[in-house]
Amino acid sequence: MATGAIWDDKFECIPRREIEQLQIERLQATVNRAARNVSFYGKQFEDLGIYPEDIQSLQDLQRLPFTQKEDLRDGYPYEFFAVPLREVVRIHQSSGTTGRPTVVGYSANDLQHWTNLVARNLVAAGVTKDDVVQIFFGYGVFTAGFGFHYGAEAVGASVIPVSHTDSRRQVEMMRDYRTTVIIGTPHYALRIAAAAQEMNVDPHSLSLRIGLFGAEVWEERVREEIESSLLIEAFDVYGLAEIGGPGVSYECECRCGLHISEDHYLVEVINPETGEVLPPGEEGELVFTTLNKEAMPLLRYRSGDLSRLDLEPCACGRTLARMSRVVRHSDDRLIVRGTNIFPDQVAKVIARIPGLGQEFQLVLDQTTALDRLEVHVAVAQDSAPDSVGGLIALEEQVEEQLQTLLGMSVAVKLVQPGSMDTSQGRTRIIETPHES
Amino acid sequence: MSLLELRSVTADYEGLLALRGISLHANEGEITALLGANGAGKSTTLNVICGLLPTRSGQVRFAGEDISHLRPDRVVRRGLTQVPEGRLLFDDLTVRDNLLLGAYSRMRRESRRRIEEDIDGVCELFPILAEFADRRAGTLSGGEQQMLAVGRALMSAPRLLLLDEPSAGLAPKAVSEVFARIQALCRRGTSVVLVEQNVSAALKIADRGYVLEVGQIVLEGTAEELLANRDVQRAYLGKDYEEV
Hints:
A: alpha/beta, GMP Synthetase, Chain A, domain 3, 2 domains, 4-stranded antiparallel sheet, globular, B: globular
């Protein structure tokens, strides 16, 4: 039964009937503002021949098309802002791989809401004003650092904005400042645990009790490893920079799914192939509509993340719908050191280079301190170079082009056509040494 | 808990669409403000709620009951009373008689004594009405008349009071007096929906609010959030573009 504190019980424990009323109110206001102030949406309504007032129920939202990441890229930098730039008080950028990034703007009210949502998240994990919170996330255009920072301050915790630094230094700070809560990516937490071990720092001598981890896909096995190596309780957090950053959904003490802040986000689950909306319980791609964003409202934004919904109230007392942990993306995307890598982009580069076949696989090695991306590419059946020198040159050419595309170092390995195990698709994650 | 809920309500004046899908709610024990320029649909919304104007589509629910198609007198009996813009007092009747008429919907069902007691209750909230009980309503100042109009509405013992522009035509001092009384009556348990063009005064006492533009809601939020919204500041709080 409920034992934990709830930051915003008025909304986190709202009856379903009332949340639906609030959602339709906020949806209509959002649609009205988006249609008037964002030309992309105004044009969409015009082209469809419908008016904002035709959205009379939550189901009517399905009459609108999806907003895709590509649309946001095309609208770079400010096309999706619904307020004049002078009313935007913060600009963040979502992690992207190539070309134009996607921009996110926040009004003063948006920042206030964001802080409040992250505070919900932290309190649900058990963070209080007595905690010392050490943040590993980068402080920059990426939303996670600042998002958790202000949320933790709102809760009243003592916040140490360390960001990235040497792992050993992180351990020293954890020990000296008696850090009780750590926040970052799960794999970074594992690295910290490894550093502590190398330094002979006994986790029992630390004050750590809670960890909040996100910004990449991680499984229960990783959770167990983090928990046992650092002696903490680890919580999954979910956010999406385009719709506002961390605070979109979060685990409570029950850890049976992530509560979605439905008063701020209307969530749909769709079949990623057909776009059809799926009933609660079925797995599909999460699609979000912002309900309270002033600076940058988004309608039906496709997240690329696969999950399923549970509308039943939770034992913690919260009534907000829960989404299952995101363990895969609908587009095969990999997240490497906080950056999205899309196989489709890699495919385009490979198709341009003579001597290569179409087969390839992105292999993400997470067993070492720094995530390492390897790209295995099959050479062409007939036009591959026939000398070792030629193969090395080809390998270097692919490496160079992929590095330019992805903005990070990549190791390329040329393989014989048909020799790769692509049964799991175009991406593969190696999480334990023996898998490699 | 929400006492009043509107779901995608549309309404028209002889075919001219005045409300284009209004959804809002008012919580028990709170003051909910409806803000917006002239012609935005604020008063129309109140008229639809209390049954003076039929809905074309959508639903109005009060205390869980669908009242979309109830006659205005039935709506009053359910506990929902409007104080119309311009007050519409009976100028030639005394203050006391105006108050008594406010209890019209209760007269057949309740004892005279009970109604007299409620007049005393209203006079406690508005002491000026006790003082001027025998004066003709038409001789009162604007602020006093507004208090009488609110007092008269309270005589129907509403759970929710709909106030249409209570500050209209009042001097600033009278506005703050009337608004302080509205806040006091909310604290005593009557929930309020407040339609106002005087946005800064309204948001000072309101808990939540909605901004209407041409028959649609474009913003919803707590009073604090609406005050922080630059559109609201520019359009309704008289701040010019340079200031915000």
